[in-house]
Amino acid sequence: MLSKLIKKHQTAYATIVIWLIWYLIHLTMQTKVVPNPFDAISTFVRLLSGELLFHLGASTLRILISIIFSLLIGGTFGLFLGLNDRFDRFFGPILYLLYPIPKIAFLPVFMILFGLGNTSKIILITVIIMFQVLVTIRDSVKGLSRTMFLSVRSTGASKLQIYQHLILPAILPKALTALRLSVGTSISVLFFAENFATRYGIGYFIMDAWTRINYLEMYAGIIAISLLGLFIFKSIDLLEQWACNWASLEKGEQSSYFK
Amino acid sequence: MIEINKLTVSYGSKDVLAATDLAIADHETIAVIGPSGCGKSTLLYSIAGLIKPTSGSIMINGKSLLEPRMETSVILQDYGLLPWKNVYQNVALPLSIRGVAKSVIEDKVNALLNALHIEEQINKFPVQLSGGQQQRVAIARALIAEPDLLLMDEPFSALDATVREEMQDLILNLHQEHKLSLVFVTHSIEEAVILGKRIIVMQPNPGQIKRIITNPHFGDVKFRNEFAFHKLCVHVRQEMEGI
Ligand SMILES: Nc1ncnc2c1ncn2[C@@H]1O[C@H](COP(=O)(O)OP(=O)(O)OP(=O)(O)O)[C@@H](O)[C@H]1O
Ligand SMILES: [Mg+2]
Predict the structure, then answer these.
(1) Where are the domains of chain B?
(2) Which residue among A46, A149, A242, B105 is least packed, with the fewest CB closer than 10 Å?
């Protein structure tokens, strides 16, 4: 009964639990650093109609633009390398070496090369998400079975139709998973990057509130950045449900095998 | 009419199929059997136009085969169904690719699903089907374009014995009904003898045809239980063991 209710309202359930824990910590610790969650929320709501919305918008825009660029670039190169073994032999080892490098270390370089403004931040986040998307898509294209290719080709499908019926639907769920994995990282990175040479963005807002020792505003910022993350995750979920409902048939049965 | 002339397929310096000649008449059925790696699939894919020969040629109805033909359907070993398409969409694929009108596709798919007794699975995805049902979907997809040539690579190897016999009977009926030529690869001697008017025994290194056995009993309804059936099976086995 209860577990059914939770399953139906997962986000609401999690929110309530987190607020309760937050409130308990607030009560036991009695420090200004952990304010009353209800005060934080009312501050958040109050600020949202002004200043905060502006910062939230700036961050959201940076993330969304980066996601679009990384899907386009990472997707194209991932497909290309996955479908052309000869090129992958040259680029594969290089990618392998670059993949684990924390790209954030290049923020200073990007700022020198592309300026202190939005461009360097967007490029940094694009690079982070792009790598994940590129590697995931390349590997999932390579993992497509030969018989699937042959059976579609035997129907007389053109190259374009092979993309339409075989390659794109096959990689879409994998690409969304890659996105989900890398968006978390990229929000943290954005938070960091927004502390340099900008006066807009949720990262700037939080750190600015901190230096002003205004903890309620700081928490309002934290709530905002959490909502940004939640918004992106939920959008990916929706996209997945809409476009890849077949993929969910193959997972989620593990616990029933394990009895 | 299929004429295969000195067909050679090589990977690198290795001849996987060496100078193979074969003629297949209209409405004939050919079983291809032989040890693993002797080039059975390679021969089948070549006839499908999916592999470019290194040398030699394949002519189908007087035309040189350069790419997959619209009138040839292929069923591959693991069926090659697309996991993101449901039964309807999988079966409709060859027609959607040809740009056939939606209403025509709908009628044809429904008719075939009914004929193959899988109409209840129409909205299911391949993972939700049993092996035998997946097999039927693959057959429906192969038949939807009304082929004159059906190629199958070990189509029944994943099925248990009863479903397998059911499928073999189904294929025999379809062959009679639709007047198509049939070339199929199998590991099962019994299956080769039941479904093959001629049985091609292949041998490896390099892949080539070792012997062609004509099956005088092809098409007998109760053939499976007769003495002649077992005699022919033994004959095929001896040919294979002599490799
Ligand atoms: N893409 C490829 N590249 C290199 N060698 C290949 C390739 N495909 C097949 N071969 C080789 O060609 C030979 C024949 O392969 P084929 O798949 O035609 O065998 P088969 O008779 O169908 O075997 P099986 O019964 O195991 O399916 C094998 O030795 C195989 O290793
Ligand atoms: Mg094979």
Answers:
(1) 2-71+148-242, 80-146
(2) A242
